[in-house]
From TrEMBL:
Family in the record: Belongs to the leucine-binding protein family.
Keyword Signal: yes
Protein name (database record): Amino acid/amide ABC transporter substrate-binding protein, HAAT family
Leader sequence residues: 1-34
Keyword entries, A-Z: Amino-acid transport, Signal, Transport
UniProt xrefs under CDD domains: PBP1_ABC_transporter_LIVBP-like
Leucine-binding protein domain residues: 105-367
One GO term (biological process): amino acid transport
Length: 409
């Protein structure tokens, strides 16, 4: 009996012959092919970007990567493809980057199968493309332009917004300040057009949530090196009425970081620098976001930035719409994506959806210090009859957008 058992053990440990191994492999392969449907023609997605010239960063900070946005879209393709293949769906992503001064409309016209276009470009380019007669059947997913006007009077029916608007960013910040009862704001704004738009959004948010702009100052960093003069120069623009925080509007990052510890009185710096609001940031880890962060770092070799997240989210949303429609037909996917009932996950702790009145993706916004997530807006206590997410940005009664009229909320 013992000898018989030993012989069976020896046989079980004997390597399979090439023929037996091949037969086993073919059997497993056949089972896998039977379980996974054959992929049909891929759903075409385009990534179109206007390259923008930016000033050199201060304080030896890392510059904004040239591939910001594009690498997020690439990760979105990988994730969507991994999900789609289980039901026989495939996706393709073509990337086109337009140099400063080149015609982005001509670049769009060269695209084939241009139903879905992830667009990373300034607002003027966004509107120029959305208004093209040949683009009326397209869906542009804006990941690069935060301009509130694109969600207001200048909205377009073929334009969805994945990146939060400036109004959403400043609403998130002022909600936090109101919760902390830091309601007196001294505002310092730079000279760039984006700085003026951010300052305008901050004033609107302050009025909306009961905070006050107690003083305003302008600061132009040109003509000197603020790294050498900040100790003296910022003492003057940050003097004024009693205030709880100094808010800075410096979207290009030309001086705002140097305000920290250089204000006339010891006050926190908030706004575009200091404690800032963003769609995403390196410290975000909750709600399994650490998994997304890890996959992105493995792909791109760097941390995921807000426009990267928006690029990933845009492609992910298209992929999710295709999965829900169980189709790669562009018309069916577009109908699902733009339906008022469409929801999609984004590693932000709750389902995300596009607002029925302006095409903006409603989403939480993070309040970030470089080393940590300080809070996540909407802040506790700010309520809304539909969803607290609609306390961020233009609510339906506030928006002048009429392009989506008739779409159910």
């Amino acid at each position: 009996m013992a000898a018989s058992g030993a012989r069976r053990d020896a046989l079980s440990r004997r390597p399979l012959s090439a023929g037996l191994f091949g037969a086993a492999l073919l059997a497993c392969s056949g089972l896998a092919e039977a379980a996974t449907p054959a992929l049909g023609p891929p759903l075409a997605i385009h990534y179109l970007e206007r390259r923008v010239e930016r000033p050199a960063p201060l304080n030896n900070e890392d510059p904004i990567p040239d591939d910001e946005g594009a690498r997020g879209a690439e990760l979105g393709l990988k994730d969507s493809s991994a999900t789609g293949r289980f039901i026989g769906l495939g996706f393709s992503l073509a990337t086109k980057v337009v140099a400063p001064g080149d015609d982005i409309r001509a670049a769009f016209r060269e695209l084939a199968n241009r139903t879905f276009v992830v667009l990373n470009a300034p607002s003027a380019d966004v509107l120029a493309l959305a208004d093209l007669p040949e683009a009326q059947g397209s869906v542009f997913l804006n990941i690069g332009a935060p301009d509130t006007r694109l969600r207001d009077a200048d909205c377009r029916k073929n334009l969805l917004h994945v990146l939060p608007s400036r109004a959403m960013l400043t609403d998130a910040l002022v909600q936090f300040l109101a919760f902390k009862r830091w309601s007196r704001i001294l505002l310092v704004a730079g000279p760039a057009p984006g700085d003026a738009l951010y300052a305008e959004a901050l004033k609107r948010s302050a009025k909306k949530f009961g905070a006050r702009i107690v003083a305003e100052a302008a600061y132009d960093p040109k003509g000197g090196d603020v790294r050498d003069t900040a100790l003296r120069e910022f003492a003057i623009p940050t003097r004024g009425a009693e205030h709880d925080v100094v808010a800075v509007a410096d979207e290009a990052g030309e001086f705002g970081a140097s305000l920290n510890y250089n204000t006339a009185t010891p006050r926190p710096v908030v706004g575009t620098q200091g404690l800032s609001s963003a769609a995403w940031g390196r410290p975000v880890e909750a709600w399994a976001a650490v998994q997304l962060q890890g996959r992105f770092r493995k792909l791109a070799g760097r941390a995921m930035r807000p426009v990267d997240w928006a690029g990933w989210m845009a492609v992910h949303a298209i992929g999710e719409a295709a999965v829900k429609a169980r189709s790669s037909d562009p018309a069916a996917v577009r109908a699902t994506l733009t339906a008022a009932t469409f929801e999609v996950g984004g590693f932000k702790g709750r389902p995300l959806s596009f607002r029925a009145w302006d095409g903006q993706l409603r989403q939480p916004v993070f309040l970030l210090w470089p080393g940590a997530v300080t809070a996540t807006a909407p802040i506790e206590g700010f309520l809304h009859h539909r969803t607290e997410l609609d306390t961020l940005g233009l609510d339906e009664p506030e928006s002048a957008c009429r392009a989506f009229a008739g779409r159910s909320p």
